[in-house]
């Protein structure tokens, strides 16, 4: 392989796994300004990234990219920079889609607060380190090195969103925790009260961080138009929803996710595939894959590939367009012809 071929291959991988633009990735790789591989996050860095993945990726909103994260960059110091979509959209029946800034959403989900005598709301130990222009740097109270930068669109006023969050938190009678230097008594007591929950989250950190560092796969290597994710015990669950009439293409997605060089060290432990059965009738179905570590790490990943009906798909397509989704991608995951056909047969 020539040097040119080598960089071209890496640039494609950066595009598919990290969401980088091909030509920009190529340039950066040639200038030795980008990592040629995706490194594993160190302990506290993985915890911080997994906390952010869990909070930002719960779904239920329409974004230009799955989860509203357009791109991830892993820096030479092994921290992460997440480039956010500018806004998300709520799909309304009257087609008056309302837009909300991604930065406001992120501040609302990520900044922790404490309800006296009750549990902590938001990720334990997450702290605001600094704001510089459109970058919000988050860190973990237990670590000097761990950090994640949220890069918002130009014109974003992080401070304004944080001030609004502060006002809401105080109005509710809660205590804001995101400026505290170290872990607060509220957070420590939360950890002690629910040790199993904390242990499970720590155990799953490598999966959350690993998924976040490959977030573009959900956009580039799947036929899903909608993705959501949550944690149950020692399992990280991701649900990928594909419109009926398109193949679920789970084998392709799994191959990329478990690629020995670019993927996560996971193997399929069990699965139930209904693709063959689905060809006999127009039923909704779900193929479920449970993956476990190839080594001795704890925790597992459950991927649910769902085939969804046509209800509200015109509405969802319009919402994705308003969110700024790429038209080529949209035509691949929610093709106009399938929606037209469904509307025709309903008449
Ligand atoms: Zn299947």
Relevant terms:
347 residues; alpha+beta; 2 domains; 5-stranded mixed beta sheet; 38% helix; globular; binds zinc ion
Written overview of the protein:
There is one protein chain. By secondary structure, the protein is an alpha+beta fold. The chain folds into 2 domains: 13-194, no CATH class; 217-346, no CATH class. Helices cover 38% and strands 24% of the residues. It has helices at residues 3-18, 22-30, 43-56, 102-110, 158-171, 185-193, 195-203, 205-212, 217-220, 250-257, 275-278, 313-322, 327-333, 336-346; strands at residues 69-74, 80-84, 87-90, 98-101, 113-114, 120-121, 126-132, 135-140, 147-151, 175-176, 226-232, 235-243, 266-272, 285-293, 300-308. The strands form 4 sheets. It has a 5-stranded mixed β-sheet with strand order 1-2-9-8-7. Helix 3 (43-56) packs across helix 8 (205-212) and helix 4 packs across helix 5. It starts with a helix and ends with a helix. The model has no long low-confidence stretch (mean pLDDT 92). The site of zinc ion (ZN) has 6 residues, from loops.
């Amino acid at each position: 392989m020539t040097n040119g071929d080598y960089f071209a291959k890496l640039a494609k991988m950066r595009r598919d796994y990290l969401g980088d633009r091909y030509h920009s990735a190529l340039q950066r790789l040639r200038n030795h300004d980008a990592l040629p591989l995706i490194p594993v996050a160190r302990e506290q860095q993985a915890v911080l990234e997994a906390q952010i993945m869990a909070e930002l990726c719960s779904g239920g909103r329409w974004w230009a990219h799955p989860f509203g994260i357009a791109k991830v960059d892993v820096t030479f110091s092994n921290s992460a920079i997440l480039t956010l979509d500018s806004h998300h959209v709520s799909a309304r029946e009257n087609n008056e889609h309302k837009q909300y800034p991604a930065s406001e959403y992120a501040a609302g989900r990520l900044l922790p607060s404490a309800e006296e005598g009750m549990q902590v709301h938001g990720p334990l130990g997450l702290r605001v380190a600094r704001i510089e222009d459109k970058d919000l740097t988050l860190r973990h109270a237990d670590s000097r090195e761990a950090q994640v930068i949220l890069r918002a669109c130009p014109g974003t006023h992080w401070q304004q969103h944080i001030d609004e969050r502060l006002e809401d938190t105080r109005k509710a009678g809660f205590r804001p925790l995101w400026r505290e230097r170290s872990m607060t008594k509220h957070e420590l007591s939360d950890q002690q009260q629910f040790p199993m929950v904390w242990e499970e989250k720590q155990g799953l950190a490598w999966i959350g961080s690993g998924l976040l560092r490959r977030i573009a796969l959900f956009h580039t290597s799947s036929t899903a138009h909608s993705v959501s994710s949550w944690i149950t015990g020692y399992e990280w669950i991701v649900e990928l929803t594909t419109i009926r009439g398109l193949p679920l293409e789970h084998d392709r997605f799994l191959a990329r996710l478990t690629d020995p060089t670019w993927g996560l060290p996971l193997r399929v432990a069990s699965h139930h595939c209904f693709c063959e059965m689905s060809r006999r009738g127009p039923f909704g179905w779900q193929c479920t894959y449970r993956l476990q570590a190839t080594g001795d790490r704890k925790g597992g990943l459950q991927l649910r590939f769902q085939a969804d009906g046509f209800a509200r798909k015109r509405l969802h397509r319009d919402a994705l367009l308003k969110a700024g989704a790429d038209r080529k991608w949209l035509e691949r995951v929610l093709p106009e012809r399938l929606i037209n056909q469904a509307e025709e047969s309903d008449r």
